[in-house]
Design a protein that fits this description.
Helices cover 36% and strands 21% of the residues. With 170 residues, the protein is α/β, with parallel strands linked by helices. Bound molecules: flavin mononucleotide.
Length: 170
Amino acid sequence: MKLEKFLEEISPLISDKDTLAVNASPREAGNCRKMTALINKDIAGSSAVNLKDFDIKPCLGCLSCVAGHCLQKDDFGKFIKLIQDRRVLIIISPVFFTSIPAQLKALIDRCQVYWTNKLKPVRHCDGYFVLIGEQSKDYLDCASRPVKACFNTLGITHKGSYYILNNEIA
Ligand SMILES: Cc1cc2nc3c(=O)[nH]c(=O)nc-3n(C[C@H](O)[C@H](O)[C@H](O)COP(=O)(O)O)c2cc1C
């Protein structure tokens, strides 16, 4: 999908809502960063963060969350606080080996604490997923599955997923 078409489609859906755009790419000045900056600039009421600026450690699979809390000490709680009262969350991610980068997968896996305890930390929030890749292949199904499951676990309503090619941004 071309960048202009994406912005045209998404703007009326999220304008003037408290929107957080999350750049899930670890790359400093890449395509996802560019896209995140554009959303932040063009859409009223939005702000943006880079996921790589948060220290989010991977899930250890230790099941301590069954007893109510996670053993990892890092920025996970800070990130959840940041999205908790938003009306819209947009995750912008590159394709890494047909799926999502490790930083985003780490965030998703850590949401196990909410799934295990049947807690929904986010309310009244619409979620969008934007995947950016180099090849014109259908990666969206594979890459968006964990994101959709995570939205569902957190209490975010998945409203749409989009695939944008590198050359549709430049
Ligand atoms: C480790 C790695 C794996 C990648 N795997 C794929 C892939 O399987 N399919 C694809 O289309 N692009 C792949 N790419 C290309 C990136 O998804 C693409 O260039 C994206 O726009 C990069 O976003 P960024 O500039 O925000 O980091 C890969 C890039 C990297 C670094």
